[in-house]
Amino acid sequence: MAVVETVRGQVPVESLGTVLMHEHVFVLNEEIRRNYPELWDEEERVADAVRRLTELKERGVDTIVDPTVLGLGRDIERVARVNAQVDLNIVPAAGLYTYDSVPFFFRMHGPGTMLGGDDPMVDMFVKDITEGIAGTGIKAAFLKCAIEEELTPGVERVLHAVAEAHLRTGAPITVHTSPAHGTGLTAQRVLRERGVDLGRVVIGHSGDTTDTDYLRELVDNGSYIGMDRFGLDVLLPTDDRVATIARLAGEGLAERMVLAHDASCHIDWFQPGVLEHAAPNWHYTHIHDVVLPALREAGVTEQQLTTMLVDNPRRYFG
Question: Which residue among 3, 35, 123, 210 is the one 20 to 30 A from 172 at the CA level?
Answer without folding.
Answer: 210
